[in-house]
Amino acid sequence: MNFWLVKQEPSKYSWEQFIKDKETYWDGVRNYQARNNLQTMKKGDLLFFYHSVIGKEIKGVAKVTKEAYPDPSTDDARWVVVNLQPVTAFKIPVTLDDIKNHPELDSIALVKQSRLSVMPLTKKEFKLILNMGKTKVAGV
DNA sequence: GCCAACGTTGGC
DNA sequence: GCCAACGTTGGC
Predict the structure, then answer these.
(1) Is the CB atom of residue A30 positioned under 7 angstroms from any atom of strand B?
(2) How many other CB atoms sit within 10 Å of the CB of residue A25?
(3) How far apart are CA A45 and CA A100, in angstroms?
(4) Could you tell me the distance in Å between the CA of residue A9 and the C1' of nucleotide B3?
(5) Which residue is nearest to nucleotide B10 (CA to C1')?
(6) Closest nucleotide (CA of A32 to C1')?
(7) pLDDT of A74 higher than 90
(8) How far apart are alpha carbons A45 and A122 in whole angstroms?
(9) The CATH number fitting domain A3-132, selected from 3.40.50.300, 3.30.700.30, 3.10.590.10, 3.30.200.20
(10) Which nucleotide in the DNA or RNA is closest to residue A112, CA to C1'?
(11) Which nucleotides along chain B are within 7 A of a protein C-beta?
(12) How far is the CA of A33 from the C1' of C12 (A)?
């Protein structure tokens, strides 16, 4: 299993909306590096959902329910989406500051590559952040 | 194929 | 709301 972090501005698509929808496809990625990460995702992989710009915090955990397929929001064959379902909300949101202040997390892509919207995490990093959110997920 | 111009993202 | 960083585009 692989671990990921995806970003979205809550004014565009929020965690709260995601919970209401129960499932969504992650569209609008128009960056090759992010796209390549989407294509690498496997069903059952776990992701953190991060709110950029407003909040700047990780809100919860989601899982991949369908692997990459062509983005229905464009005719351009280069872009893909995956389907995601919410798994659990964090008891405590983990902020960008929390991550920057953690010695083992201050060099992850979220901090170093602020414009990348889909990025991989190691299992160790995933566990650390999960603990900071006071949240548990089966199998991690 | 280089690189200047431009557009977008996202932290501040 | 500003602007730095960075990715993309297009002229040469």
Answers:
(1) yes
(2) 17
(3) 24
(4) 32
(5) A53
(6) C7
(7) no
(8) 12
(9) 3.10.590.10
(10) C5
(11) 8-12
(12) 29
- Domain coordinates of chain A in residue numbers? 3-132
Backbone angles phi, psi at A90, to 5 degrees: -65, 140
Q: Look at the block and give the residue holding tokens 């950029």.
A: A52
pLDDT over threshold 90, residue A4: yes
Q: What is the pLDDT of residues A99-137, one digit of tens each?
A: 999 999 988 999 999 999 999 999 999 999 999 999 999
Instruction: Give the bases of strand C that a protein CB approaches within 7 Å.
Output: 1, 5-8
Q: What are the C-alpha distances in Å from A106 to residues A31, A82, A112?
A: 23, 28, 8
- Tens digits of residue pLDDT in A55-72: 999 999 999 999 999 999
